[in-house]
Amino acid sequence: MPIRLRLTLLMVLGAAVLAAVTSSALALSLEGGARATLQQVLLQRSHRVVAALKAGYLQLGSPQAPAVAQIDQSVVQIVAATGAVQYTTNVAGAAPLVRGSLLRQAGRGPIWLELRRSAWSSPHLVLAAPAALGSSVVVVGTSLDQIDDMMRRVVVVLLIGCPLVVVVTAIAAWLLTGGALAPVERLRAEAAEISAADLRRRLRVPGTHDELTALATTLNQLLEELDSALRRQRHFVAAAGHELRTPLARVRGELELALRSGSAPGPINARLQRTIAGVDRLTRVISELLVLARDDDGRLRLRPSPHDLGSIAASELSTFRARANQLGVMLVLNAEPEVVAEVDELWLRHALDNLLDNALRYSPNGSAVDVAVRAVGAGAVIEVSDRGPGFPSEVLSQPFQRFGGRTSGAAVEGDTRRGTGLGLWIVGMVMNAHQGQAEIANRRDGGATISLHLPGIATGGSPPLDPPPPVSGPPDPRPGTT
Description:
Shape: rod-shaped
Strand order of the largest sheet: 2-1-5-4-3
Order of helices and strands: HEEHEEEHHHEHHEEHEEHHEE
CATH topology of the largest domain: Heat Shock Protein 90
Helix content: 40-55%
Number of strands: 12
Distance between the termini: 38 Å
């Protein structure tokens, strides 16, 4: 969950809890204040009744005695200690409002009650206090309708106001957190644009002299260290590759001379052939490392020109024919005539070498590798299919990553199928440079198919990167694909 959303939800939750607590406290406070006001009114009323008794305005023992104008007679009773009603108003009724233990308790001091009667439409707050004359008790009361009405209005206001407060808080929190996190998002976007191919870029350091400034500075230092390490790595790989190519070429030449002389016995010739295959393997690894070292910006520089794709595919198949015969694999070409596209021939051959080497490496004895060249719409497609084990799911999901391939895990001694893991990545680079697309898929009947989709007219233009040097002699020892 994004930080902005988490902070907004946290602030909304806090606002909701605060609104609920504040609303409850406000409602209780208002209700308490209203009850205190009513109690004060009832106290004053009881005092007026007592004063009327002392002045002789009320005739005790006559429940129907005339009312006194100075007394609010909504609920007024005077009850003797025996429980007999000595005076009452019509609203209070003829039955005593307090009796028994409550009557005796009221004779000793004021008590507050909340009573309900069938004749009343709502509960009443009642005060029972000594009458100060004999042992009688004065009972006065008033309806709680006003308090109930007030509390209903308060609840309605709170039910409308609290959600509005929460909504306003959510909007304010979203805007505030967005503004606070905007510099962080800017740093993230700038960092996302910086790839391993261009570590020379740096993040803009904000001049706020706060945590964001420290973060941007730290990230720039990290980028500087990564850039320096990557330059050292590329320099080392390029230097090592160039230093190794020449002695390997000489070793291969000497081995070929020894093999062609025909003077060595058969077992020695077999060992010489295996040694030449090992030298070719090292040469492919070095070629791939050189491509990796020259990948400064993630794309190759091309010299495009019109070429017949069928002719290129046929030429590449011829270089792998001897190896295919040794493995017992048939190479089949199905090319439509005059499928022409503007391509860099050397880099396209490099990609096809990888695909054919990969297909032969995983093809079982007695199977076939099919190469198809055909026009599709305004473009062209080259497909290489084999009958091997296919690609695992993790390769199908990200096929053109460095060091990916059909095999995974640690290398196993004697596993001649394992490659360097750069072949598919190089194929992807070649297709990107041609503004095309490479796709891989597993066949339903077993095996894998890799398709190279080329536009009808490929565009070039940038200064060319040195293409893989041509190698004379037996099959071209350029990269294989794993």
